[in-house]
Amino acid sequence: MPTRVDSFADDLAAVPDDAVLYRRVAWDRIGGQSNYEVGTVGRLNGNCFTDYPEERAREMGYPGRCMSVGVGPVLEEHGFGPEKMLENYPDQGVAWALAADLRKLEKASGDPCPQGIMLVPTDDEPWHGVVFDLSAGYKSTPVGKAIAKVSQWAVPLVRHE
Amino acid sequence: MTSAAFAPRSRLGFRNNWIHANATAMSSREVLPANSVNSSSATLLPSWFSAFSNRMDELNRVSDGWDSYGARTLNRDAAVVLLRALEQLSFAIQSQPAVSLNDEGGLVAEWQTPFYSLDLIVNPASEICIYYQDVAANREWEMPISRADMLDKWLWRASSRV
């Protein structure tokens, strides 16, 4: 259970612009393995970058909708890379995006949809952080798509036999 | 559009024996067929419905928290709503969608070409939401299905086999 968060605040000190943010991706977020040819890499989509539903977010102690990530510099401080995010989830992949790209995020239309980022350490994951939408308060489909566009695989999902 | 709200618009009823190839719906013609499939030909559905059915079986087996972030299992009502929507719109769909689960146990059916992309997003107890992007024009639309007057055309474009 994360530390209780009273309000969201974009934290440039704890999560500087050059910080890499990691997000686990399950096959069923990207159409399933059966959607890909053997040997091909899955395609990141907007469904990989969605907020917790409002009710669940509040149950978890957040003031509103947000998305969990791993904060790269803190992972590194603990001597880990993105693979650490998969320690208990070997069937998943990891995507990454730069904090600066999320803070200056734009939809395909060019409309700004800036995201805020803060570190919310948990007992199990001291590198845990959340990304929250600074304009609408939640990530609409265009926002998820915009995040997918600035994201890449750190540990790709590859279709095997 | 909830499953109940979808019913009045539905031209095809849900049935279990719907997996039959339809050569017209499978074609890659550039022109959208003028008439949708009517109820008398409800058993003639495109070949991708078989793969879609298999995919739904896969998604029906996932357990709570499947994504490691606490996402819910497949919501049966959402599955039925998506199935009915795809049946109803099959005349405008040229290829199988990529079907994914979302946080709420809802479904995202996605088509993508280099030029267009379209998502049908079905969340429990909510109207189907449509997302459509014209990549070349840098334009995108997000709206409930009841307001998506261009849906047939958008689906035809985004599901084309380029």
Please outline the helices and strands.
The complex is a heterodimer of chains A (161) and B (162).
Chain A (H helix, E strand, L loop, with lengths): L19 E6 L28 H6 L7 E5 H6 L15 E6 H5 L11 E5 L8 E6 L7 H9 L2 E4 L6
Antiparallel strand pairs in A: 1-2, 1-3, 2-5, 3-6, 4-5
Chain B lengths: L2 H4 L16 H4 L21 H13 L15 H14 L8 E4 L5 E6 L3 E7 L6 E6 L4 E6 L6 H8 L4
Antiparallel strand pairs in B: 1-2, 2-3, 3-4, 4-5
How would you describe this protein?
The complex is a heterodimer of chains A (161) and B (162). The longest helix of chain A is centred in the last third of the chain and has 9 residues, at 141-149. In chain A, a hairpin with an 8-residue loop joins strand 4 and strand 5 (128-133). Chain A has a 6-stranded antiparallel β-sheet. Chain A is of the alpha+beta class. The mean pLDDT of chain A is 96. Chain A is built from 4 helices and 6 strands, in the order βαβαβαββαβ. Chain B is α+β, with helices and mostly antiparallel strands and 162 residues long. Helix content of chain B is 27%, strand content 18%. Chain B is globular, with a radius of gyration of 15 Å.
Beta-strand percentage range of chain A = 15-25%
Strand content of chain B: 15-25%
Shape of chain B: globular
Number of helices of chain B: 5
Helix content of chain A: 10-25%
Order of H and E elements of chain B: HHHHEEEEEH
Mean residue pLDDT of chain A: 96
Structural class of chain B: alpha+beta
Helix-residue proportion of chain B: 25-40%
Global Rg of chain A: 15 Å
In the sheet with the most strands of chain B, the strands line up as 1-2-3-4-5
- Poorly predicted sequence stretches spanning 5 or more consecutive residues of chain B: 1-29, 36-41
Low-confidence stretches of chain A: none
Task: Outline the biggest β-sheet of chain B.
Answer: 5 strands, antiparallel
